[in-house]
Amino acid sequence: MKNEISHSSCFQEKAIVKTDKIGGGTQIWAFVHILIGVVIGRNCNIGDHCYIGMAIEGL
Length: 59
Hints:
With 59 residues, this protein is mainly β.
């Protein structure tokens, strides 16, 4: 996936989105917080009040 947010993605204005890697058709709802470096695929639906941060493999 390129370093871009697809134009077909939809964000609620109260979401905090710091990543630039979001696939097309993804919906992000109110009070979601997504940290920098996170990769979100296509056609995802991220509901209210979710926090998505980075994980370290192997832990």
